[in-house]
Amino acid sequence: MxxxxxxxxxLSSFLLVFSFQAFAGGKPFEGKITYEMSFPGSNxxxxxxxxxxxxxxxxxxxxxxxxxxxxxxxKTINIFNSEEMYSVTLLDIMGQKYAIRSSSxxxxxxxxxxxxxxxxxxxxxxxxxxxxxxxxxxxxxxKLIGTESKxxxxxxxxxxxxxxxxxxxxxxxxxxxxxxxxIDAQGTLMKFTATSVEEKKISKKEFDxxxxxxxxxxxxxxxxxxxx
Length: 228
What we know:
By secondary structure, the chain is α+β, with helices and mostly antiparallel strands. It has helices spanning about 1-20, 45-50, 105-110, 220-225; strands at about 30-40, 55-60, 65-70, 75-80, 85-95, 95-100, 115-130, 130-140, 145-155, 175-185, 190-200, 215.
């Protein structure tokens, strides 16, 4: 159980970083994008994998985005305001509910400490959720731990703006909405593949912060879970 909780917290911490996408600007899009999540090459046992999320949903309206992942032990939600540059991450872990707010300065600090990335754009394309996507290879160089990894991205520029990922520490150079991409979460490869892109009206209430979450910080949350 401890291993499963630790894995979920690792995935949640990466959601804190990789949800910082500015959807405002360019051709407006309002609606919901659903992604299938997989963990290729994972060596986790069956019980741990069962606790991992299988799907991620992103709701988009104006300058607001909301990313939702359900796990076997609860739910992780990130609400991001790209105009005011703040985010709130909501963690529901086995009924314990925590809210972590990140200011603009905190977001910029996290991005600044992130690894360097180089993008190679390729001619290959792939149809994902009805959109023809272009392929790119992102090479991640982490000088702090001396590692290098390559991640595959398929992105669409049919309904996006060239600066859509400007706040993303890894994918800020990708000029479109990523409909298939990978993240290396401390040795665990996560793959996100869009299964549907639905244009529809989204209520602003979707981005309200629930009142039953305990406001905390990342450091305080680590101490609550024994430093994990």
